[in-house]
Amino acid sequence: MFASLGALAEALGATDERGRERVALALVDLPLSMVRRHLRAGEPLPPYAEDLSEECSVALLAQDRHRQRG
């Protein structure tokens, strides 16, 4: 998984450590934490959970592209 994540980060132009961490946060850590919080509480995921995760991930990845340009 980490090799694939690294390859994806490179394909997205995230070649430094900060960029790779941002990709991992967007695609692994953030979605996992949302699921984990609800599972630990014994609650189902809300119907909008996937949308929120996607919105946050897109924002994080877009932020990395803006940082690289500036």
> Structural class, judged by helices and strands?
mainly alpha
Biggest sheet descriptor: none
Radius of gyration from the alpha-carbon trace, in angstroms: 14 Å
Strand percent estimate:
under 5%
- Binned, the helix content reads over 70%
- Low-pLDDT runs of 5+ residues are none
Query: SSE order, as H and E?
Result: HHH
Termini gap: 30 Å
| Mean pLDDT, all residues | 88
Shape: elongated
Question: Number of DSSP strands?
Answer: 0
Number of helices: 3
Structure characteristics:
mainly alpha
Structure described in brief:
The protein has 70 residues and is mostly helical. The chain has helices spanning 2-11, 17-40, 49-69.
How would you explain this protein's 3D organization?
The chain is mainly α. 79% of the residues lie in helices and 0% in strands. It has helices at residues 2-11, 17-40, 49-69. It is elongated, with a radius of gyration of 14 Å. The mean pLDDT is 88.
Question: How is the topology of this model organized?
Answer:
Elements: H1 2-11, H2 17-40, H3 49-69
Helix pairs in contact: 1-2, 2-3
